[in-house]
User: What shape does this take?
Amino acid sequence: MPAGWAALMPVYAWQGLSAAGRRVKGSLEAEGPRAARARLKRDGIFPTVVREDRSTSTAAGAGAATGGLFGRREARLRPPELAGVSRQLATLLAAGVPAVEALDALAEQAERPAVRRVLQAVREDVVGGSALADALARQRGSFPALYSSMVRAGEAAGALDAVLARLASWTETQSQLAVKTRNALAYPVLMLIASLTIVSFLLAFVVPKVTRIFADQQQALPLPTRLLLGLSNFLLDNLGMLLFLLAAALTGAVVALRRPPVRLALDRAFLRAPVVGPLFTRIAVARFARTLSTLLAGGLPLLDALPIAGDVSGNGAMAQAVRAAATAVREGHALAPTLRELGLFPPMLVHMVRVGERAGDLEAMLERVSAAYDGEVEGALATLTAVLEPVLILAMGAVVLFIVLAILLPIFEINALVR
Assistant: This one.
């Protein structure tokens, strides 16, 4: 189902009886009245009234159409906010505080108004008789897909506080990995952009003024000077066209990346790239292994956990492979040989999964794999940064040296003729 379709599903107001015989009411999103009744029955509620709330549905549709500015799911919790909410909610529930009071306390102390609105919406659904997992699932834009799934498993197992604490640790680890990746690549990227900007400025504005004096000379200019003048003249004569082509290329890239086949092909190319491929593979595998370990430890069945963990890996090719593995497991195959046959997963992951399956402790083995790959990713990022910095400096120095030589060589020749 497309991401925007879920936001346009109708909202149904319902009344019913809980398993304890209490009268409860609330609202939920569903594809139709039959789906709404089936969902309520799965939650242990016997529905007596189910009717479409057209005002809420219209508002939700308008919010989706306008970018979600006024919708209930407009705020996506940042990783630190999500980790903080999870850990504080786990602490309050472990201390015996009811879920409604705990959500009240979290909403009051939320710094961002958008986060406060999300928590208040979750609280209202819980007060209306919804389970916490269902209330979180309705805030699709605010919480990751695995969040409500794990909370539902925690509610079923009676270990909601432990599951929330594990979710907080998972969020913090994922956030730290993302921050380390961005920090490691920020300096080389900024240096590359600055270098290209400086060289373009020199070629377009500085070099023509300095070398204009050589154009009046009757003698032949040195090859570096002729190349520099030709490149500078090309930039000046075609600057508008080059800027247009650059804008068109960027627009085309953005449009192409929105197409799933293009993103899938690009993700597959990233995993198989000669130099950076192993790094992208380690990052995706670390996310997949840690997420799958967290889901299994939270009580989610393997078949339900695999697709979620594959999506969280951040790579479309790996997510597709994990879904294929889930299909094979559903047909009775073991997970380890299935992952090996897919060819995208490193041998260490396959080996640890095999050991975990035999020992009946798959989540612990996956946790060890994720920790090992986190360390490898950190080391690989440090190595990549250490290599890129001098390479970029040398490349920039070579370009500047070429420009300086192209300017100085004619001057030397003129001085020699004068003497």
Remarks:
- Strands lie at 11-17, 23-29, 46-52.
- The chain has three domains: 1-69, 72-143, 160-419.
- The CA atoms of residues 30 and 36 lie 5 Å apart.
- Residues 72-143 form a domain with the Receptor-associated Protein fold (CATH 1.20.81.30).
